[in-house]
Write a structure and sequence with these properties.
One of its GO terms (cellular component) is mitochondrial inner membrane. One of its GO terms (molecular function) is metal ion binding. This is Mitochondrial import inner membrane translocase subunit. Heterohexamer. The chain has 97 residues and is mainly α. It has three helices and no strands. Helix 2 (17-47) crosses helix 3. It is elongated. The protein starts with a helix and ends with a helix.
Length: 97
């Protein structure tokens, strides 16, 4: 009885690689959806004065510009984080020497 409980306890400590990949993919999807929601809310507040049956050319141009700036900013932040992550292991290795 003890051997079965210890083997099942050991199984809880390991994570199935497929499950871990699935969780990572779902987390990325959730982050993307949050970004789309933020972008929609931000651009709507900035560009939509009064909702109507059609977008006027000013509101349409504002939405296009807002979305492009949001994407540019998000890409810049992601690139910066990626650079930080790449340089981080090198920094920690130099500390251990």
């Amino acid at each position: 009885m003890d051997s079965s409980s210890s083997s099942s306890g050991a199984g809880l400590g390991t994570v199935d690689p497929q499950l871990q990949h699935f969780i990572e993919v779902e987390t990325q999807k959730q982050r993307f959806q949050q970004l789309v929601h933020q972008m929609t809310e931000l651009c709507w507040e900035k560009c939509m004065d009064k909702p109507g049956p059609k977008l006027d050319s000013r509101a349409e141009a504002c939405f296009v510009n807002c979305v492009e700036r949001f994407i540019d900013t998000s890409q810049f932040i992601l690139n910066r984080l990626e650079q930080t992550q790449k340089s981080k292991p090198v920094f920690s290795e130099s500390l251990s020497d």
